[in-house]
Amino acid sequence: MRKLVFVLVAVVFSLLSVAQMLPPGIPRNETLIVDSIHERLIDPTQGNMWVPGAAVGSGLNNLVFDNLWYVDHGTGELINALAAEKPVYSSDFKTITIKLRKGIYWSDGVEFTADDVAFTINYLKKHEGMMWHSDFVEWVEDAYAKDRYTVVIKLKKPNPRFHYILTCDIWWGCTIMPKHIFEKVDDPLKFKFWPPVSLGPYVYKAHDPNGYWILFERRKDWDRTSVGKVAGKPAPKYVMFVAYGPEEKRIAAQIRHQLDWIFDVSTEGWYYIKDANKYTGSWFKDYPWAFFHDPTARGIWFNCSKSPYDKKWVRWALTLAINMYEVMLSAYDGIQILCPTHAGQGMAHFVLYHKGMADWLKNFELEPGYKPFDPTLPERLAEYARSQGYKVKGNPVDIWGPGWWKYDPKKAEEILKKLGFKKKSGKWYLPDGTPWKITLNAPTYEVDATRLAFAVAEQWRNFGIDVKVDVLENTPFWNELSYGRFDVGAYWSSSAQGGIMKDLWYTHRYWHKKNVLPVGKYAVYNRPRWKNDEVSKLLDEMAGLPPDDPKTVELGKRVLEILIEEMPIIPAVDCKKFSPYDTYYWTGFPNAENPYWSPLFWCGGFKWILPHLKPTGR
Amino acid sequence: MKRYIIERLISVFFTFLIGTLILFLVTRLSPIDPIDTIVGKLAMMSTTISQEQFESMKKTLMSIYGLDKPLLVQYFSFMKSLVMGDLGPSFSFFPTPVSELIFRAMPWTVGLLTTSIIIAWLAGNLIGAIAGFFEQKKFSKFLEGFFLVLSLVPYPVLALTLMILFVFTFPIFPYFGGAPSSMISHISFKYILGIIKHAFLPSLSLILVYMGASVVTMRALTISVKTEDFTEYAFLRGLPKRHILWHYVFRNSMLPQITGLTLSIGQVFGGALITESIFSYPGLGQLSYYAIVNGDYNLLMGVAFFSLVGICIAVLLLDFIYPLVDPRVRVGE
């Protein structure tokens, strides 16, 4: 019996002593541990990024592969990465010449040259089913290496923006393939390219067979990569992506200094972690802490092919029935930025198309003599913050945006009654006499979008509409939108609404009427199914102009003005991020005081952040 | 006897055949189109394709995945591949074969669930039998109350309570995974202990829930068997109580419990989604969830297929084992 007790005690003691640490031989103080945004990697050994469905956000796109150019998350300008300079277009926009950076090598020691770029384009064009295949089929006549470091691409038709395909905007762009590997591959769709040969500053080191973590190691020849040449040595020797699971586990892990950077947390989660861990930081040092310039903006989307949301005035009445001040407080405790226009919230869009349109917004008349814009909201939110004991540093417009739309239920009522809607005993009825019921879709997995849906639903209920919020899982949530089966929903998009590039055509071309499909057909773009001839004409005009032509900004602003006049979606707030980082092992994370990049480490530009980090020596 | 076995095998074969047909149709009738899901995700990530390019890409992928053929052709193609042991590629994780994903997840699920079910079944039935046999004793009343409450606690509440207590408040157990990341390539006694440590909380949560139900059911069964004529006769004969408990009452009370155990083990291949999600434990449950939300027909079919096979085998085993336990159902007797 004594022996049995001894064995049991020994087993229990051993169980308690088995700590969950880094893989053997990996020192913590040389390792940056970050959140795996898409949770666990079900198939961690898929390194072929050119096959649809390969995992993005956990090291391959943001550490291992590389692009010719990146978009600077702050300025919206192109960063030359593998390319030595910006692309040179012929006057007819049918030939592009790209000069490449010299001295870049693949991790297996083979030099990166123009042959790799030309091969990538021609190879993907040749193989159906591969990523970017359809792009190259549509545009490329031929791509060839003019010399070892110069690529020439001949296009079938003029395109002043062809280089966007080869540019990493947020997540990725067409990444360059190693010719010396893929030229020997017969069926690239079935080739897993594992472990991948790297062109970026890190190489694959190890992974959990169950996909809970994956580890990358800095290349010994990091100085022979684009990041090494442009930004310097990436500080962490190792970068580990870990899928801790739900928010509470990630917060607990950061409090114990086992997770250096979290994708995002809820407001409540943020309040907890900032008090529990004195090393935790976010974008701002004080209230409102969070980063407000994620490229994507959230909004209330209408199905413009369905009655009564096919009517501009109904959409506007619903906009004026929202008390945005109350929404900001009830859903976000004031920690959000207001999006009055249909631009994204990336810094480039914010400067040009939110703040930059402040005068137009203030003077915009929905009806002769009626100005619906409310520029007082930023100051009111600042007052709220002060009333809570927080200090507001700087201009409230720079924090909360230039304002939003007025809360004017009387005007909303007037508009609806003109359209034949009736209000009886405080409840609204459609012109045909049936009660007005709205089903508002919200996702299960994006807290901010769900909160927006519930807060707006509450506003509309107070106004007298019977609103039901349907909280849906990811795929049904987006399918409702894409097939046009929804009425109204709290949606967002990184295409139509995103914006770190100054060129509004890039994000707003999807509003073109040619992208409107019948209900029941899966639409990739223009999913609110809103048609407008003038916007389509403006987009066609912008398509023919080079992206840096000053006229594109003017035409872009006109597109936004029409979108505001028509309000096919009610732009609301940003996809703000707390993205808490832990300064126990590492400092130098991007923040408001040192805004060299955005905190979007899961995107392709993560590699540009790493040279800025500094070890604390702990 | 030979005829009985052949009949059972034929019956299981048809069950399996009809089951696969139903599974095939149900997965194909899913409102989620896997191709739309994949290409839609790419569009969300700011790729540069147009609507026309999207349509063309969709056609190509439909052809690669074999989804452009009529449903009947797809079914026969699936059955043909199945005979060859090929469940096809996963759509969401193309070109990885479904079987590879399943075999990677299966040991965790099977290990966790089988162990938990057997421990809970053994302990639950023993406690239930004793509590039922001595129904008037105080400890019996206490056990009945305790396990009744336990069996009524919603599983997620119990699992989350364990998680809060032993992962967050007292950080004894790990946040996630099935094995320690610090010992990935070191199969050793310590590594096995690491596996046990990772499985401990999920397993404990399952054991408590299964055990609660087992104790309550077994106690009721024991009380019922105790009042049967043959038990009373045994008491009148003056046989020792221990003998009556194990040879008269326990054995007869076990019959429905054996059915329950066999079917529970048969269902192991379906995974335990809630357990796996709460404890971030790898397994078939999470794989099924990925398959459902992404409309990955092949992967869903694969997991469901193994579940079907598990249940068919369990039923078959039950048919063969039952006569050994219960002489009353022996063929020809």
Radius of gyration of chain A: 26 Å
Proportion of residues in β-strands of chain B: under 5%
Helix content of chain A: 25-40%
Average pLDDT score of chain A: 92
What is the approximate shape of chain A? globular
Would you report the number of β strands of chain A? 24
How many strands, which pairing sense, and closed or not: the largest β-sheet of chain A?
Answer: 5 strands, mixed
Portion in beta strands of chain A: 15-25%
Number of helices of chain A: 21
Structure at a glance:
The complex is a heterodimer of chains A (618) and B (333). With 618 residues, chain A is an alpha+beta fold.
Which characteristics define this entry?
heterodimer; A: 618 residues; alpha+beta; Dipeptide-binding Protein, domain 1; Dipeptide-binding Protein, domain 3; four-stranded mixed sheet; 21 helices; 24 strands; 31% helix; B: 333 residues; mainly alpha; 13 helices
Secondary-structure map:
The complex is a heterodimer of chains A (618) and B (333).
Chain A: H1 2-17, E1 31-35, H2 60-64, E2 69-71, E3 78-80, E4 88-89, E5 95-99, H3 114-126, H4 133-139, E6 140-147, E7 150-155, E8 167-168, H5 179-182, E9 202-207, E10 213-218, H6 226-230, E11 238-242, H7 247-255, H8 267-276, E12 280-281, E13 297-302, H9 312-320, H10 324-332, H11 347-354, H12 358-363, E14 373-374, H13 377-387, H14 396-400, E15 404-405, H15 409-418, E16 422-424, E17 427-429, E18 437-443, H16 447-463, E19 466-472, H17 474-482, E20 488-493, H18 504-508, H19 533-543, H20 550-566, E21 569-574, E22 581-582, E23 586-587, H21 606-609, E24 614-615
Parallel strand pairs in A: 1-11, 2-8, 18-19, 18-20
Antiparallel strand pairs in A: 2-3, 4-5, 5-7, 6-7, 9-10, 10-11, 12-22, 13-20, 13-21, 14-15, 16-17, 23-24
Chain B: H1 2-28, H2 34-44, H3 51-64, H4 71-83, H5 98-133, H6 138-152, H7 155-169, H8 189-226, H9 229-236, H10 241-266, H11 273-278, H12 284-294, H13 297-325
Helix pairs in contact in B: 1-13, 2-3, 5-6, 5-8, 5-10, 5-13, 6-8, 7-8, 8-10, 9-10, 10-13, 12-13
